[in-house]
Amino acid sequence: MTDETSISDNPDQDGASYAAAGVDIEAGDRAVELFAPLAGKATRPEVRGGLGGFAGLFALGEYDKPLLAAGSDGVGTKVAVAQAMDRHDTIGRDLVAMVVDDLVVCGAEPLFLQDYIAIGKVVPEHVASIVSGIAAGCIDAGCALLGGETAEHPGLMEPGEYDISATAVGVVEEDELLGPDRVRNGDVVIAMASSGLHSNGYSLARHVLLEQAGLPLDGYVADFGRTLGEELLEPTRIYAKDCLALATECEVHTYAHVTGGGLASNLARVIPEGLTAELDRGTWSPAQVFRTIARLGKVAPEEMEKTFNMGVGMVAVVAEEDAERALAILTARHIECWNLGRVRLARDSDAARAVLVGGHRG
Fold first, then answer.
1. CATH of 23-52+65-173 among 3.30.1330.10, 3.30.70.1400, 3.30.565.10, 3.50.50.60
2. What is the residue-wise DSSP string for 217-235?
3. CATH number for the 180-357 domain, one of 3.30.2090.10, 3.90.650.10, 3.40.440.10, 3.40.50.300?
4. pLDDT per residue over 319-335, tens digit each?
5. Residues sharing a CB contact under 8 Å with residue 136, sequence separation 6 or more, in sequence order
6. pLDDT tens column, 92-137
7. What integer is the mean pLDDT of 221-236?
8. Helix, strand, coil percentages in the chain from 3-state DSSP, rounded to 5
9. Burial category of 359 from C-beta neighbours within 10 Å (exposed 0-12, middle 13-18, buried 19 and up)
10. 206: CB partners within 8 A, 6+ apart
11. In degrees rounded to 5, what are phi and psi of residue 355?
């Protein structure tokens, strides 16, 4: 005898629907109505059409030998802080920064960005708040918010949960492409200050501050001069326009966006074989948030440096003769910056391509 499962009609059961299964199409439509005016402000003259199409359209314009640059990223577990604080208007800036600031490393101008929001339950006001931050970030970066997708995932994500990601496209003339092949012995490494943790290392930060130290997100922390949640939600700085402006005025050889892996690891990606970027810790003092995490969590210095940006969000490698000019230009653009180190010939073939020496100030 075999087991059988019988399927029969239940006359007392209401008809199934997408809404009953947890997907509210009408809520999604209301969310679009709320964020459409915000997204419409993040545009460029090359955008064709509008929101609501199946694809975003962008006229590339006239270039001699254009190279398209593309990048995708997310915000990681910083999203968990935004959800716990029930504040969703800043996390979009983080998303834009993480994507567009990767593009400018090679000298590419960000043209447009498309976002993806996966959410357990669409609450129109929450989605509109997220998109407001994305739109504001795109304006800061000078790129268009060309479109995106909001996907409701009941059963896979809890109603209050969401995650965000984005893809951006930029363009650079082939003969203006920045990268390791331009870096030379004697180049100067210039640091641009971060606004805080940016969007990396939050698993460790949350473990130390929330779990080990037991600090409440809404509690005032004297070290920071504000609540812990406000400190952790400080938006990632967007350097795109500043980097592009600097490259037009100075001989910039490459940039390095300091994200996961820390300063030395990310800079090493743009230093060619045979050269080493020697960086002096004594040129700056890490912001208080890094010192607090290290102290409360007894985190070793080497662990801090490979997890966090430690106060340096972007690095420019410039020709020696343009170093002072580069510092002046960035300062005029209200970017805190300093001479971080210098590129030198490697002592041997196994030498690291970027090293930190000395101790921090303070």
1. 3.30.1330.10
2. TTSEETTTTEEHHHHHTPP
3. 3.90.650.10
4. 999 999 999 999 999 99
5. 42, 92, 93
6. 999 999 999 999 999 999 999 999 999 999 888 889 999 999 999 9
7. 96
8. 35, 25, 40
9. exposed
10. 77, 80, 81, 232
11. -135, 145
**Residue-range domain boundaries for the chain:** 23-52+65-173, 180-357
Angstrom distance (rounded) from CA 258 to CA 101: 9
pLDDT of residue 5: 42
SS3 86: coil
Strand locations in the chain (E): 47-48, 57-58, 66-74, 109-119, 144-152, 162-173, 188-193, 220-221, 226-227, 252-257, 275-280, 312-318, 337-345, 354-357
Confidence category of residue 30, pLDDT binned at 50, 70, 90: low
Q: Which tokens is 112 given?
A: 């447009």
Amino acid at position 251, single letter:
E
**Residues across the chain:** 362
Given pLDDT bands bounded at 50, 70 and 90, which one contains residue 192? very high
Please report the sign of the dihedral spanned by the C-alpha atoms of residue 140, residue 141, residue 147, residue 151: negative
- Comparing CA positions, the residue from 128, 122, 105 lying closest to residue 178 is 105
